[in-house]
Amino acid sequence: MRHNDNNPDKSVRTLRVGEQVRHVLAEILQRGDVHDDTLVSHLVSVTEVRMSPDLRNATVFVKPLLGRDEEVVLKALRTTTAFLQREVARRINLKYAAKLKFIADESFDEGSHIDSLLRAPGVARDLD
What we know:
alpha+beta
């Protein structure tokens, strides 16, 4: 489950590097630079990257277009992790190559669930 942390301990550098990693991964996946048929045939959104304070670990939240084949896409991403880590390290000048961990982004599903709850007749009646 994804949490929106407004943690003051998160440094600007950690946030900036996370955003750079997100952009690099999105570009690699969009261009089809990965030599994996599953990733080439699916559009994958990199919705967020959270870096550890030491910048050695990155949690990458992804969502395939329309949520299709989520497990297959996650497996393909995990299989190509070494390649993606090398590419990120090559394109972003960091002391260490961040270890990438891919997780399905559930925030869209949570938002849809909350929206459906708010539209339920009993809740709508109470809100009026």
